[in-house]
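Hi R.,

As promised on Friday, here is the backbone we talked about, encoded as structure tokens. Could you run it through your design pipeline when you get a chance and send me back a sequence?
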């Protein structure tokens, strides 16, 4: 039974097994009214069984967004307490080998759709003096080889969060940017096997690089999705939440390195792990 203290929450990207799924369940456990969304509503059947409202939503489709806003508006009497921009995709490829259309597609989902979602729900958020939670990544702060396009999109999302925080302050809307470390999710499930194109400058380390492109971090180094979600939700429900919130595997380490150490040390650290030292040696041998 919902009470006056019950908050209404809409979350994008709630397919089973992902961060959005875990966030929806965490908000639901705290007694709040959750609207879980995804492109394929069937992937949220388990949430529906828990009593969570599921809504089919393609965040890149203005018509789908408008329909969802109208539905939530009618169901909540014009108020939305929390909007969580979680929907996102990943694209693995060295920048020199990246495909322009794939890049546009990623930015359409990770950046433009997030902004459009904020814009269409803003009247409801302002009415509720609500909160926006953008699920960003440590990739906004560190250059990860072969994930450059993704890093660029998360940097854009982070700046969007910081700017919105200032611009929406007059309306008492809070903006939280969650700087997410490694978390168990299905972010790579929708990505087809990525292979270096013929003639790539990185072909001399093809095996190592392709392995990293398709499985960037061992599973055991990833934080629990459930614990991550619980932490994010607990912070969001505070009277004065932390607005730049670092959580997930390796997040604290990345924060410390990028805050206190020489920034260029990151390149030295990752070059060996990501096969770039192998490329360097092969290139120098070829050039000599």
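Update: got your reply. Pasting your designed sequence below so it's all in one thread:
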């Amino acid at each position: 039974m919902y009470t006056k203290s019950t908050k209404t929450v809409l979350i994008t990207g709630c397919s089973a097994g992902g961060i959005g799924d875990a966030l929806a369940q965490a908000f639901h456990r705290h007694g709040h009214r959750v609207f879980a969304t995804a492109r394929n509503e069937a992937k949220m059947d388990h949430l529906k069984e828990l009593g969570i409202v599921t809504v089919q939503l393609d965040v890149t489709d203005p018509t789908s967004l408008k329909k969802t806003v109208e539905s939530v508006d009618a169901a909540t009497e014009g108020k939305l307490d929390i909007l969580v921009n979680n929907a996102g995709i990943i694209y693995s490829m060295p920048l020199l080998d990246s495909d322009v259309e794939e890049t546009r597609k990623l930015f359409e989902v990770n950046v433009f759709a997030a902004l459009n979602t904020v814009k269409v729900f803003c009247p409801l958020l302002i009415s509720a003096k609500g909160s926006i939670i953008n699920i960003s990544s440590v990739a906004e702060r560190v250059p990860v080889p072969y994930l450059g396009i993704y890093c660029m999109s998360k940097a854009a999302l982070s700046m969007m969060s910081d700017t919105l925080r200032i611009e929406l302050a007059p309306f008492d809307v809070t903006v939280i940017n969650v700087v997410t470390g490694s978390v168990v999710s299905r972010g790579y499930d929708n990505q087809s096997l990525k292979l270096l194109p013929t003639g790539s400058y990185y072909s001399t380390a093809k095996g190592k690089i392709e392995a990293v492109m398709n499985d960037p971090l061992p599973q055991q180094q990833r934080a629990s999705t459930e614990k991550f979600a619980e932490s994010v939700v607990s912070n969001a429900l505070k009277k004065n939440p932390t607005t730049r919130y670092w959580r997930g595997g390796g997040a604290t380490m990345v924060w410390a390195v990028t805050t206190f150490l020489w920034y260029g040390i990151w390149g030295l650290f990752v070059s060996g792990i990501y096969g770039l030292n192998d490329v360097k040696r092969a290139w120098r041998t070829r050039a000599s």
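One thing I noticed while checking it: The chain has a mean pLDDT of 92.

Thanks again,
M.
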